[in-house]
Model the fold of this input.
Amino acid sequence: MKLTATIMVTVDGVMQGLGAPDEDRSGGFERGGWIEPLFDTGAMTFLNEVYERADAFLFGRRTYDIFAGSWGQVEDPGMNPVAKALNSRPKYVASTTLTDPQWADTTVLSGDVAAAVRELKAKAGGELQVHGSGAFVRWLLDNELVDEINLLICPVVIGQGTRLFPDAGPDIALELIASSTTPGGVTIQVYRPNGRPQYGTATADLKHVT
Done:
């Protein structure tokens, strides 16, 4: 399976507490719930299509708890493409403390997570999807386990909160394979990690650039 990460961020890179004011107040974050006014039908259509492609889901512990407490409680999952996918397909969560997951069809990965993820990726199928899970996504990228990134950039600056990438970390070259913008201004970029970036010196003479 191809491991894809779908992440929604602000223009200043914040991904914390997007769904509701009280979703994640860690670190004194007070600006949760920022995505609701911005996520238009174009962005929702794209997200529905992503979820419909999923063969299985992979979560970090915090995002798993948020999803289990929301999408996992939908009374009729068949009415919503996201709820239907999440409640009908296998789910894997990386955690050393979760021992008895209540969300059906959940498997806890608590040992060698990198080896477990590689084993999942080796299975036949389409996509093993990660949604949100910022710290976990960064770890997956550090371990070169991510095959594709769906980055949805919402037209707002939040000014505080946890960002997708820290101030210091590994450098990653990205290949842009698709790009679109919704009527409401959400920019959707699909990237493929492509090794290390190249570095050079900028000059005033750019005639050699093609």
Observations:
- Residues 21 and 64 are 18 Å apart (CA to CA).
- The first helix runs from residue 41 to 52.
- The first strand starts at residue 2 and ends at 10.
